[in-house]
Amino acid sequence: MRIFIFLSLVIMSGASFAQDSYFGIGLGNTTVRSHTASSTSRNAVGLIGHNFNYNLGIEAEFSTNINKDRIHDSTYFIDYAHTHLAGYLKFSIYPADNTTLFLRAGYGDFTTTGDSSDTSSAVFDTISTRTAIYGVGIQYNFSPNFKFRVDYSEMDLGTCGYCNVKSTGEIVTVTPVIYSF
Fold first, then answer.
1. Does the global pTM surpass 0.85?
2. Which of 133, 112, 127, 139 has the alpha carbon at shortest distance from 61?
3. How far apart are the first and last CA of the chain?
4. What is the DSSP letter of 18?
């Protein structure tokens, strides 16, 4: 995975003078769901990408937690944070002059961290998994250089080893600042 992201960045740096490379910053809600519980954290998201042609491109995306979600277990409160680092292959279509619809599929590292603010319990939990991630999105081009986009991605997080609970994850991201160069 790290090799894919590294190669993506190398390819994009070589094409940085084309109008087809871009970076963006935004906010996202990352949710983990199982049949017993759900938690959502607010994340800052960074994005870098390159379009090879009209329809095909690559992206690297990362998120870091800025607001944890507090859920109540049977005896204590747990604050959950979710982060990810992923590389994607992106397929785009253009239904209108300033609008882009895209599908993306990739692979990434997804981490959930839970800690308890209750000092009487020593609950601390980190689950990290590598998984396939896929999603859809829409982008509006204000100008050739500035864009706005919203996307939704989903992943299967597998089964938690200690609790035997199958989980899925989803990321909803709003990226209000995308700059093409």
1. no
2. 133
3. 26
4. S
Written as six digits, the tokens of 162 are 């200690």
Is 11 in a helix, a strand, or coil?
helix
Q: What 3-state class would DSSP assign to 68?
A: coil
Provide CB contacts within 8 A for 149, sequence distance 6+.
Answer: 24, 26, 100, 137, 138, 139, 140, 173, 174, 175, 178
For the stretch 10-42, pLDDT in tens is 555 544 444 589 999 999 888 877 766 777 888
143/117 Cα distance (integer angstroms): 46
Q: What parts of the chain have a pLDDT lower than 70?
A: 1-19, 35-36, 69-78, 116-125, 159-166
